[in-house]
Amino acid sequence: MSPSLAAHLDRSLHEAEDAPLVVAYSGGPDSTALLHALASRTRRPMLRALHVDHGLHAESGAWALHCRRFCESLEVPCDVIRVTVDLTRGEGVEAAARRARYAAFAASLRPGEQLVLAHHRDDQVETVLLKLLRGAGPEGLAGMRERRSLGAGMLWRPLLDLPRAALLDHVAEYRLGVIHDPSNDDPRIARAYLRATILPALTARWPQAATSIAHGARLCREAADNLRDAWMDAQLRLGDEHGTLDARGWLALPPAWRAPLLEHWLHEAGLSAPTTAQREALERQIREAAAERLPLVAWGGTEVRVWKGRLWAMSRRGAFDGEWSASWHGEPLALPGGGTLSLPHGRLPRAVTVRYRRGGETLRPHGDKHTRELRDLFQQAAVPPWERPRTPLVEFDGQLVAVADKWLSDEGKSLFDATGGRPVWHRGD
Question: For residues 391 and 344, what is the distance between their CA atoms, to the nearest angstrom?
């Protein structure tokens, strides 16, 4: 074993306090070196591997088989998880695959386990440079965190101070079989371009470039952590039970708090953070927003809207057929505007029609003496404007009897009471 890798892992494992370890194992050189080294230094019942098969390459099935066999040779349990990469969110393939991969990791971690990733100093340098090109602040320029919570456990990167050469030396010394993913050589991918073109030029001119950039990242991490308590307190003040933020309050924060707070708020919701230009566009929208407008800034798979003086974040929504309608007996019904409508406790003896709003609909809610325009009901209930066109309406004999699971007419209540329940709209966002 490479002495530098051995010493690094000895120190790191001592700090791990005997927690069960799960190696994120792609089959590439880095994760192969990490898994092999850990298997020789960790009690095997405390170690397992996870391989995520993205299904994006023709050889992905063969790669998964290679990973199983390598783990068998080490007597390390290996779980292979097949994921579907969602390419409809406006992200690039790399970002979409990363999202799917980390979701699989989070779902697979058991309480108390630590997911160990083989990210090393060279990866950290690439991350910092990419963040710098996006105009990131201290949090972004701090690069990847060594530890953070993930699912029921923790994510751990013990090799961030170790150059990749130490891992490659380990692979060569033990003649380990590894997978080569050709996407790592694709210059159209930002990381691959940095790795093949920019970093060799930097280190040729400044041999200590990687060490200096990694050191700068550590200083930024210290600064970002010192700022964190302040903006976390601000988030508590500006947030609410709906997960929104006070728009003007956020805009009034010092710039050093504003960007990391927004990024953290979005990441908590499983959404991507904006570039500096996108964040500035959002700030401008807030300043210029008129009461009758609904500001919207979108990037990748994320949308942030301003409504009633608050920021609302959600997954980016595609167009849908507002003229759609379907016959329904209560079975789970997929809605083109998102989500499903279901009747959990029974089925209707006669079919009803489910459709979307087309304008002019009225309903007299059960217990109300007055017939109301649907527009007024939405406004009084503070239903967000972007949700209103996607809210399913239920008609029976040509009469509106239910608005999703929000309101029932007297006729609708009688109709659904006979089934032992009422409609349930799972929004799916």
Answer: 18
